[in-house]
Amino acid sequence: MKYDARATRPVSAAPKRVLVVDDDPTFCKIALRAFTDEGTEVVTAADGLRAIERLRPGQVDLLVVDLEMPGADGFSVIKHVRSTEGLTKLPVIVITGKKSLDAIDTVYRLGANSYVTKPVNWALLPYKVKDTLAKA
Fold it and tell me: What global pTM score does this model have?
């Protein structure tokens, strides 16, 4: 691990890679800009099936996923992550318009690390991403 001579904390060798999964292209563009500005590398997927195809051990450091998408929804993506060797500890942040207690309960029972409702506070979300990555 490298250290910055001016700081007492380690310097990351490579930026963290975040996979953002949402069927709303505008959301993906905003997330790409917001997370990239914070020094993370961002890849996107327009639906759960494409996300599952891209999720390989060691390829991403964090998954940000919407729940309501055509094809495989966010619940299916989380189930895939938690049942795939090498991905079981991948941190997951759910970002969705669903505000029901049933959805929240299900997401946490499936193993998500955090739940954020839309509309998203883009000023605060990068901090949640950094915090989730730091705890992983």
Answer: 0.87
